[in-house]
Amino acid sequence: MAVAPAAAGVGRGRRSAATVAAWGGWGGRPRPSNVLLQLRQGQLTGRGLTRAVQFTETFLTERDKQSKWSGIPQLLLKLYATSHLHSDFVECQNILKDISPLLSMEAMAFVTEERKFTQETTYPNTYVFDLFGGVDLLVEILMRPTISIRGQKLKISDEMSKDCLSILYNTCVCTEGVTKRLAEKNDFVIFLFTLMTSKKTFLQTATLIEDILGVKKEMIRLDEVPNLNSLVSNFDQQQLANFCRILAVTISEMDTGNDDKHTLLAKNAQQKKSLSLGPSAAEINQAALLSIPGFVERLCKLATRKVSESTGTASFIQELEEWYTWLDNALVLDALMRVANEESEHNQAAPEENGLPHMSARTQLPQSMKIMHEIMYKLEVLYVLCVLLMGRQRNQVHRMIAEFKLIPGLNNLFDKLIWRKHSATALVLHGHSQNCDCSPDITLKIQFLRLLQSFSDHHENKYLLLNNQELNELSAISLKANIPEVEAVLNTDRSLVCDGKRGLLTRLLQVMKKEPAESSFRFWQARAVESFLRGTTSYADQMFLLKRGLLEHILYCIVDSECKSRDVLQSYFDLLGELMKFNIDAFRRFSKYINNDTKFQVFMKQINSSLVDSNMLVRCVTLSLDRFENQVDVKVAEVLSECRLLTYVSQVPVQMSFLFRLINIIHVQTLTQENVSCLNTSLVILMLARRKGQLPLYLQLLQRMEHSNKYPGFLLNNFHNLLRFWQQHYLHKDKDSTCLENSSCISFSYWKETVSILLNPDRQSPSALVSYIEEPYMDIDREFTEE
């Protein structure tokens, strides 16, 4: 086979300097490690040896005998020669067919962690393929359709594109750095999207794009993808579901996984920077998707379709076969096929019906496989909907999700799919257990709960989680209590609510109360229910949940099961705070459950074990106590006298203990979205003291506590700095103050006034912090840095 034209000189005895160096000088023997070292160096620098075409075929053949490169360099040499612009690519495709199995088996072993290659070789085939320029060559071949000759664009077959994509992906799997190098080729990444127009290459392209975007430093912009609207609109439902795997990477803000852990200083600095730069790539991508006609409607249909409505058996089996050649899903397929075989064996053991033999496992798709297929699709779709719900166009997405009946659709799937019971043949991925959070069953449940949380949070559409009967119940609760009916309930479109005997919220409460103590779902369940209560406190909403035993369930988990998980405890305390706030009936129920000193001590021990986790409940009790003490009502007076919690918190020393610890556990440099609530809870205690004319007393007591702990000035200096940061953070024009008002029923103007009074520089003011910091210990003008 003739070598490529570029190598002709090398093949006729005129060795390049790079080749001479590889041979160790004229007349020397080939030094294998030297060759690979120089190839690696050339790959990094772009100079010297970079491709197989720079060697003679004789040299490569002799070298292969020693190092067992599986003939890959020689195949690449032939591939160069047969893939020029005027080639018909027939021979080129045959060579790709020869290369592909050499890499695919190795990649399969790598992914399954066996890492036992079929040949005893020092260098994996994928590594050799990449070192001799195979990756760059395949990128060039794939992008040939972007080149025009005499006004006509070159074409390559879908089959050939498939082979190139498969080889590239296998190399990415096994060889470190390949995926990152591909990610740096922005034109190539954009071009890959155009390959998804063909069903034959869709799955391979989508999987490769997903891996590339996962390591790409800068997020790709979807508005740069040619004909994005047409591309997405022409996807069938299966393609759209798989496309959501890519969208998950392109619409999520980078580094948001631990959003609660990032300091507010860092987030504020990033926000200022972002304001000067304009919308982020993720925001641009979200807007691009929402501009595609019917996009959200199709996602809602995918999320809510029943298993019986999904793709037929034949097309599903074809897709599974494609997955089998695509390693990203190979392990999932293995698990699915195990389920299929078990059900097939069960069917074969059963008697034949109507004298007809059962269909083979290949043509008869087991129900469990259909379910798992649908679960894996819904995972991706729900994630995309969830991200869109939290984006800038939240209200627009909310309207569309309501219009396309996502919530009633999910309600109909709740028992049979979303919260179905685990079967003996439940899917377990390689290297994981059935209870692992990576299980598709478990991940679907968590994603579903996250969606509910995003959907309900501070939005009037939350009442779509109920059915008509339950909405009538809310109206009846308001009527009985002689209070105005919630306007959002009156405005709810009854044609869009849940149908059936129970709404989605009630179903969630039912499974929540049955959840095992060690379940990882408890945190997400509590968060989803709490989001329904967030916003302006609604007595009817609280009573709706109280009547279903929610308060007793939470107290059982906190006190009787003595929950140890900090995350779960925090979610329970937050939920309990929203459930009980200003509700005298809730405090009466609390008293009936916590009816002895032993239970109360356990409850308080849980609260005091971490105020970061429990401070929202402390805030709720403090605010409720203040309101109850100003009411003239026999029932209220009775509860005030019998409720251990209200009696305990009414004591000034107890309030001071909470206040001291809340201020002491946070600092400007450590403030996050998770613990900034401690600062706001401390402010609530002081605002209520100010209302009673006791602010100077509380500050004086804080000063005494400082001295008794032998740290004069430490606490008040820290509090002064925290309040200065509070002003910078909350008085920013983009900050929404309604959350502070809703959580406290105290106007934001009173919050601002109280902070200003505390920060008054006049040392003669009895309500100014500086009046209680002795001069030698004064340290209030420190600059805010992240260090």
Automatic annotation (TrEMBL):
Q: Which GO terms describe its molecular function?
A: phosphatase binding
Enumerate the UniProt keywords alphabetically: Receptor
InterPro entries attached to this UniProt entry: ARM-type_fold, TRPC4AP
Please give the superkingdom of this protein's source.
Eukaryota
Q: Which is one Pfam family of this protein? A: DUF3689
Entry GO terms, CC: Cul4A-RING E3 ubiquitin ligase complex
| Keyword match Transcription | no
- Name it: Short transient receptor potential channel 4-associated protein isoform X2
Species of provenance: Carlito syrichta
- Print the organism lineage: Eukaryota, Metazoa, Chordata, Craniata, Vertebrata
Give the gene symbol: TRPC4AP
